[in-house]
Structures are given as structure tokens and as C-alpha cells.
Amino acid sequence: MDRLARILLSPANWCGLGLATLVLVLKALNLIGIAGLPLAFGGYVAGFVIGGLWLGFPKLSGPMWEDALEFSDEGDAREAMTRALAGVRGLVEYNPENRLPASLQAKALDLCKSLDGLLRQWERSQGVLSMQEGFHARHIAISYLPDALKAYLSIPPQYAASRVLHDGKTAQDIFRDTLTELETKVKQLADDLASQDAQAFLVHSRFLHDKFGKPSLAAPEIQTAAEPKQ
């Protein structure tokens, strides 16, 4: 069972499933004939091999999460983030040996959901994140969250729940705080993009008002936290 989980949660398996799904979509669109199913199987095998050569094949020894939580930051940042989030979410839902209590499991999945939302917002936003903020967004998904989860899972469950490590907090408490800090950062990045989009909307509305002189097109002033109402 453990070996099967290693394979299912490995990046190579995700690549294989992705290529097989693409073939099935083409078949559903009637772009591929009866050979679609054999091609889907061949696509999975090819994707698994390519993914294994690129991102590493699943290891069948040692803790399963070590392999499942290793992600590459190469190529397109958003594709890398998507792969990493899929891997983290799959492992958290699988919850090896029930090492994650329900509250931590839900909190980790909520963070993955927030990161998914940030990724979609980032793709459609007219705003931009600074180089530093873009680095943070990328590495929260690809390394910060996976590394924190990997470190936590390496602690025996009973020890993580009962042994005080620092400032009266157990490993569970510290991991919960880490997830909260990452969630706060993700919300900050989302607010930054939303603020830029709102300002872009305001500028465009003012342009229309100045051009056509129609009061109905005027946009109200947007108050921000840094600019309280007078």
C-alpha cells in the first residue's frame, strides 16, 4: 500500500496522467479515432518516463513523503506551482499513518486552496508582483509549504502532539503557526493584486468620464487602509 501511494503521489505519475488526459480529451473531441484508448495508455507511459527523467522517479524505500514532496522550480513558475500544490494536496489527503490531526489537515488544505486562488488571480490580473513578492508566491507552493510539511511528518505522531519544543508549544502548534503565517502572506499577495486591479479600474473610469463627460461613468474614490477618509 505504501509503495502504491509513493507511485500515485509522485511527480512522474502526475506527468503521466496529464499526458493521458490530453489524449482522452482529443478523443472526446473526435480528433482521435478508436486508437484513442491505446494512445492514452501509451501517453501515460511516455509521460511517466519523461516526468521521471525530468523530476525523478518514485523511490520505493524511506519515508514516502520525502519523494512526494520534492518539486522542481525549473520551467514555467505557474506550472511548477500547480504540480507542487497537487502533490501537497494529494499527500495531505492521503495523510500517511494519520500523522496529521484533522484540524491540521484541514488547515493545510485551506492553504492549498488559497494558493490555487492566488495563482488564478495572478494569471488574470492586470497588476504585477514585484520580483521579491513573485519569488515568495512561487516558493510558498514549491518549497516553503512542502519543506514544512516534510519536516513535520518526520516527527513521530505522539511526540509531535505531546512534547513541548519551544515557548510552551508542541510540533503541532508550531506547524499550525507556520501554516497561519503562510496563509497570511498569501492573502497579502492577493490583496496587493486586487488593489492594483482596482486602481487600474479607477484610472480607466476617470479616463472615460474625462473623455465623454458623463457623470454616470465617474468612479468613486477608492479608500485604502493607508488612506483613511478625511
Question: Can you put this structure into words, describing what you see?
Answer:
It is a single chain. The chain is mostly helical. The protein contains nine helices and two strands. It has helices spanning 2-8, 11-28, 36-55, 64-68, 77-94, 102-124, 131-153, 157-162, 171-212; strands spanning 164-166, 169-170. The longest helix has 42 residues, at 171-212.
Q: What integer is the average pLDDT?
A: 80
Q: Helicity, in percent? A: over 70%
Biggest sheet record: 2 strands, antiparallel
Pairing-aware structural class of the strands and helices?
Answer: mainly alpha
Instruction: Kindly report the spatial arrangement of strands forming the biggest sheet.
Output: 1-2
- Rounded Rg: 23 Å
Q: Using DSSP, what is the number of strands?
A: 2
Helix segment count?
9
Name the overall outline: flat
- Strand proportion, as a percent range, falls in under 5%
Task: List the uncertain runs.
Answer: 225-230
Distance between the termini: 64 Å
Summarize the helix and strand pattern as letters: HHHHHHHHEEH
